[in-house]
Amino acid sequence: MEKMPAAAAAEAPAKTAKKTPAQKLELKAPVAGKVLPMTEAKDENFANLILGDGVVICPTADVIVAPCNGVITHCSEDNKHAIGLRSDSGQEVLIHVGVDTVGLNGEGFEQVKAEGDKIKLGEPILRFSRKFIESKKLCSDVMVILIEGEDPVVAEYVTGITAEAGKTTVAKIG
């Protein structure tokens, strides 16, 4: 098991409201599969940490579960390939399914939870079809990004393992 500190690389998009830095948090894998460092993402925007650091999971299942307790803050309603959440400790997280999946216009995706819904660790929040995504010659990897506010996110990422959805820790804050 390889552990690596978060890189303080690219800045996150500007926030309009002040955000309190997250307290302690153990983020669990939102999907089962092999966990890789974000720098190994197949999309250079993710690999270059443009949106922030995190992990990539090569999924072995088709269900995204809540990686922590919190609330859904964003649903990509038209494309359904991305979901944002805020943990109960205040950490913003983006879960992005696939590379270039925005062009599928939601086909192969089913949102289980809506913006504003409270979520519990391990609860299904999004379903997707790896088979469909891959039939379109697209990558179905799942990017899990810790979004930075005014302060950088200081996290320890757990990579080089095979994760179980909702059970295996992939990031630790605090």
Annotation keywords:
mainly beta; 2 helices; globular
Topology:
Elements: E1 2-5, E2 25-28, E3 33-37, H1 44-47, E4 54-59, E5 63-65, E6 70-75, E7 82-87, E8 92-99, E9 109-111, E10 118-119, E11 124-128, H2 130-135, E12 139-147, E13 155-159, E14 161-163, E15 169-173
Textual characterization of the structure:
With 174 residues, this protein is mainly beta. It is 6% helix and 43% strand. It has helices at 44-47, 130-135, and strands at 2-5, 25-28, 33-37, 54-59, 63-65, 70-75, 82-87, 92-99, 109-111, 118-119, 124-128, 139-147, 155-159, 161-163, 169-173. It has an 8-stranded antiparallel β-sheet with strand order 10-6-7-8-12-4-3-14. It has a 4-stranded antiparallel β-sheet with strand order 1-13-15-2, with no helix packed on it. β6 and β7 (82-87) form a beta hairpin. The relative contact order is 0.31. Mean pLDDT is 88; it is low at 1-21.
Question: Care to count the β-strands?
Answer: 15
Overall average pLDDT:
88
- Helical segment count: 2
> Which percent bin holds the helix content?
under 10%
What's the story with the biggest beta sheet? 8 strands, antiparallel
* Poorly predicted ranges: 1-21
Beta percentage is: 35-45%
| Quaternary structure annotation | single chain
Instruction: State the end-to-end distance.
Output: 20 Å
Note the overall shape: globular
Radius of gyration (Å): 15 Å
Class from secondary-structure proportions: mainly beta
Please state how the strands of the largest beta sheet are arranged side by side: 10-6-7-8-12-4-3-14
Order of helices and strands: EEEHEEEEEEEEHEEEE
